[in-house]
Each structure stands twice: as C-alpha cells, then as structure tokens.
Design a protein that fits this description.
The protein is 27% helix and 27% strand. The longest helix is centred in the N-terminal third of the chain and has 13 residues. Bound molecules: ribulose-5-phosphate (5RP). Belongs to the ribose 5-phosphate isomerase family. GO terms for molecular function: ribose-5-phosphate isomerase activity.
Amino acid sequence: MMTEKERAGRAAAHAVEDGMILGLGTGSTVHFTLLELKVRMDQGLRLQGVATSQRTEILARELGIPILPFSAVDRIDLTLDGADEVDPNLNGIKGGGGALLYEKLVAEASDKVIWVVDHQKMVDTLGRFPLPLEVVPFNLEKLWKKLENQGYHPRVRMQAGEPFVTDAGNRILDLHLQAISDPEGLHRELKLMSGVVETGLFLHMAEEVIEGVGDTLRHHFRK
Ligand SMILES: O=C(CO)[C@H](O)[C@H](O)COP(=O)(O)O
C-alpha cells in the first residue's frame, strides 16, 4: 500500500497542465510528486521547473525535468511543496528540510501554491513543530541569546556535529514554542530582528492542501 506521503505527493502531479512552469518544493512528500511528474512526462506532458533546493534540483535533473534558474522566470504557474504543519486556515510552518527561504521566494512568485502532506501535519494550532528561522551566521550566537531571553527556546540546527548550512549559506534556529497564538504578529516580530532572513511561517500562501489520510485523500481549499 502507498504511504500517505506518496499518495498525496503523486496526486499533486495531476494538477499540472501542459506547458506549465512549476515551482518544485523540497522534502520526502514532494519527492513522490517529482516521480509522478516523470511518469506524466513520459506520457507527453511538457513542463519546466524551478527548484527550491539543491536537493530537489539534483533529483529533478536525474529524472530529466528541465530546470530553469529562478532569476530567469517572471512568474511561476504552480508550486507544489510539502509542509511541516498546516492549520485550518491553510497557514503553515515550513523549513523542516531547511529550504524555507527559497521555498518562500518561489511560493511568492507563484500564481498558485498546493501543499502535499500526510494527515499528521494537519493541526488546530501551529507551533508544536519547531519554527525554523533562517539567520545570517554573523550574529547567530547573539540572536540565539536574544531569542532565549525572550522565552522562544531557540536551538541551533545541527548536521553531522556542525551548524546546518542552508543553500543560501545561512544557519537555522528552531524555536520550540509549542503553540503560536498569533502567527502574523510573531512573523512580523521575528522579521524585524536584525539577522533574521526569513521565518518558517507561511501565511496566506497555499490555496490548496492535499492530505493523505490512510488509503484516501482529502482536499482542503483556502476560504
Ligand atoms: O519545508 C520543507 C523543507 O524546507 C518541507 O516541505 C517540509 O519539511 C515537509 O517535508 P516532508 O515532506 O519530508 O515531511
């Protein structure tokens, strides 16, 4: 049986129309979207993609999906991406894979955004998943201290014993908050801190979420 991630991921590839420029998200769910896009391309679908991470670009190229640099496109027809948490308003937390900055830039340049998730990602309130912040390395320690003093419980994301480095050369601080009562206010507050490049709060961006639930799918649309 397909996992929920695979079911949702593959389903999203069927929202793609011939000739589209697609934003290609990052993560283990969208991985299946790319595999299904390859199946559809073998059946004649034409498309070009803009990758949100090196990891996605490598997979897309392996599959023969033509990749355009972000700088070369004006608009993107549709972006298909994963998410770490999604609330009933289809606001979400992203960045579990560390690609939040490019994911947000690509989403903002897109006419439509669809997220693909398994059922555990749907929550009433955002925040149980640690909120990633992409920050410049220069003041990582000072920013950590400031956020710690404000009670945001930051942790430097690590990989193989070293601070994780994003595709843009930045670092990630994960905020362990448990519940975010005012996502817009928090996003604004964090963005105003010098050294914060982007937050993992993706607000009013996804128009549709495809949720894998057992052996079926649920489609959620933004109201
Ligand atoms: O935001 C992301 C990467 O920065 C991913 O889309 C998110 O972490 C979901 O990943 P997965 O599909 O592997 O659960």
